[in-house]
Amino acid sequence: xxxxxxxxxxxxxxxxxxxxxxxxxxxxxxxxxxxxxxxxxxxxxxxxxxxxxxxxxxxxxxxxxxxxxxxxxxxxxxxxxxxxxxxxxxxxxxxxxxxxxxxxxxxxxxxxxxxxxxxxxxxxxxxxxxxxxxxxxxxxxxxxxxxxxxxxxxxxxxxxxxxxxxxxxx
Length: 170
Description:
mainly alpha
């Protein structure tokens, strides 16, 4: 059967892809990022995404799809960890002149904002955080992600529209 007609949704084909590529992708991520447990988690997530999209992916593109998903997930995880570390290293003030009501409203807003950011599509969230938290320019983001500046602009626009709908003006 020609490669184009082999269905990734066929369990035996999916199994074959897993046997051939899971360990290699895992070691690729481990060598690149140095965390075997995280690499294994990302490989599992990547294969889950392959299964969820199996009808859209031709057999010949499955390997590159898996590597792309795994690499993007590991980059997102690295960005997230960097943001967490940056936040933790920022001294938090222990005193305040604000009323308890204001503090509670601020906390509720931040919770709502974090939930809204988490709910963004992966590409939108990635662009939003790189721009707003990491202070990267659209051009830098485009180069990092291997997409055009226009694509970055569109993702950022959609992220902001979504956030405004969910929590109001940002």
